[in-house]
Amino acid sequence: MVRYSFPGKVVLVTGSSRGMGAAFLEAFAAAGATCVLNYFPDEAGVNRQDAEATAERLRQHNVPVHQFEADVSRYDSVEALMQRIKNELGGLDILVNNAGILRDRTVKKMTPTEWHSVIQTNLDGVFFCSKLGAEILRDGGRIINIASIAGIIGFHGQANYAAAKAGVIALTKVMGRELARRGITVNAVAPGVIHTPMLQGLKPEVLAEYEKQIPVGRCGRPEEVAHAVLFFASEESSYITGQTLPITGGWF
């Protein structure tokens, strides 16, 4: 099994207080990277609590861990985040655009607010972080975007989410071309149904129906997506850019 190593590399994973984002950072921490944990500053402080618990777990790998709050849907917030990373850590080597939300509803019932909130976080956020992150990303760096099978298939009740993730896939292709001259690769992974807190909103019968359609017969695990993220962040993937890798258990 390939064991990746990232000593001396600075990695930012957006939306990494829990779920897949936390799993990605834990994999990077185990591989020796300096970790930047990002979370959305919610009023109840739940994300901050989750971030502190995740940071404590990451520090068990004896790597530097930094907790920076930022709302990726706001350009000024992302600008401040990247400036802080530059000032305190000197720049970035790896950016993983993971932050995302769900506001599922059929098109008929979906409100403009539900549409815009998902587009702003899941697509605008990736654009803001990629644009501003590229300014502090060292040459030869990596950007990995977390897309979704929803952006390829288009699920019932997910017009906003599917549109945003399809946009992420297209943005990945464009940025892969534009940043290639600096040796920066831009790739995406498109997970299928993965065991994360997002699944808690699904009814058991809906989840069971999804599992029936997955050839391997089960939902994925966050660490299985993390393996692909680390590959795209590694030197072994240096001749791959602008691509999207489905991680779906064979579900298309």
**CATH superfamily membership:** NAD(P)-binding Rossmann-like Domain
Strand content: 15-25%
- Count the beta strands: 7
CATH architecture: 3-Layer(aba) Sandwich
Going by helix content, strand content and strand pairing, the class is alpha/beta
- Main sheet attributes: strand count, strand direction, barrel closure: 7 strands, parallel
Task: List the strand order in the largest sheet.
Answer: 3-2-1-4-5-6-7
Oligomeric state of shown chains: single chain
- Order of SSEs, N→C? EHEHEHEHEHHEHHE
Number of helices: 8
**How far from one another are the termini?**
27 Å
* Structural domains: how many: 1
Mean pLDDT: 95
- Would you give the CATH topology? Rossmann fold
Shape: globular
Uncertain segments: none
Determine and state the CATH class.
Answer: Alpha Beta
Q: Indicate the percent of residues in helices.
A: 40-55%
Radius of gyration: 17 Å
